[in-house]
Design a protein that fits this description.
Shape: globular
Number of helices: 9
Structural class: alpha/beta
Helix content: 25-40%
């Protein structure tokens, strides 16, 4: 059984159909990268999985937990399926450590000392332990995004969704963030990643999902997708990326 299963997902905005009928699975330890043109439904898909967008129909299940939003509440589901956004979503009035600990203490009712010990270990791992008392305004974009990743990891999720996490970063800061994600992948973290970083996608993915107009057009392992795509739409997309 897959770790995460999406069956017959449909999402509309009024008369506009964003995702007509999508099926996707993610296995434990697998990294699936979702590619496609802007507006094709990639971010909408992630937001539906995490309950941030209300789906019109379909079933999203996590192994050993059940259907999200039905067997467990979306609040509980977001502790199992974490999400990292392109805009960091850090609270400006809280320092780094308090931003990270807000979820573990408030949502999971964990002991602060225990959670802070884990947070410090994670901060050290991404090279930011010395910034634990800094405020978001004192951090670079790359540092903020690494803090956002640590905040998600500190909730001990089964799956992490990453939505264009380098889109708002200066080119020099992209590598420091992607290196953290690559390390997580190598350690077996289960991830669904939306990105426009093609080189990174080829390196990190176990499987590539190519979407257009809310549907999966092509699905293959990275080497085949990038060097021998099977559909004309995927070929057209990759030609547009090779400027």
């Amino acid at each position: 059984m897959p770790l995460l299963s999406i069956q017959n997902l449909r999402k509309t905005y009024g008369e506009t159909v964003a995702i007509p009928d999508l099926n996707l699975s993610l296995h434990k330890g697998e990294v699936v990268v979702i590619l496609g043109p802007s507006g094709c439904g990639k971010s909408t898909l992630l937001r539906c999985i995490n309950g941030l967008e209300e789906k019109q129909s379909g079933v999203i299940t996590v192994k050993n937990i059940g259907e999200l939003g039905k067997d467990i509440s979306w609040e509980q589901a977001r502790q199992k399926v974490g999400m990292v956004f392109q805009s960091y979503e850090l609270f400006a009035h809280l320092n780094v450590i308090d931003n990270i600990l807000l979820g573990p203490i408030k949502a999971q009712k964990r002991d602060r000392a225990e959670a802070e010990k884990q947070a410090e270990t994670l901060l050290a791992r991404v090279g930011l332990l010395d910034r634990k008392t800094a405020f978001p305004r004192e951090l670079s974009g790359g540092q903020k995004q690494r803090i956002a990743i640590v905040r998600t990891l500190c909730m001990n999720p089964d799956v992490i969704l990453l939505d264009e996490i380098t889109a708002a970063l200066d080119p020099e800061m992209v590598r420091e963030v992607l290196d953290v994600v690559l390390e997580l992948a190598n350690e077996g973290m289960s991830m669904l990643i939306v990105t426009h970083e093609m080189g990174f996608a080829e390196k990190v993915a176990d499987r590539i999902i190519f979407m257009d107009r809310g549907s999966i057009i092509e699905e293959s392992e990275p080497n085949q997708f990038f060097h021998n795509p099977q559909t004309e739409r995927a070929k057209q997309f990759l030609r547009g990326m090779d400027y």
